[in-house]
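subagent[fold] <- orchestrator: predict structure for attached chain, return tokens only, no commentary.
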Amino acid sequence: MKPSEGSKNKGKVWYWLLVVPFMGTLFPSFYASATPTLWGWPFFYWYQFMWVLISAALTGIVYFAAKK
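subagent[fold] -> orchestrator:
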């Protein structure tokens, strides 16, 4: 293996972080409920919105980490 190939494979490890939001939203039966509420929002909505924010943060982390 050439040194440049090792660095390419090392950058690809960061892509595994993108699996986390997928797994968090894969089973809607887990979060398909109205309680607990957060500021009047049912659990179903605020749970999904939480994953939107987490996904954006993880995408940024993966982008900058894999870019190097």
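orchestrator: received. Logging for downstream: Residues 43-67 form the longest helix (25 residues). Residues 25 and 48 are 7 Å apart (CA to CA).
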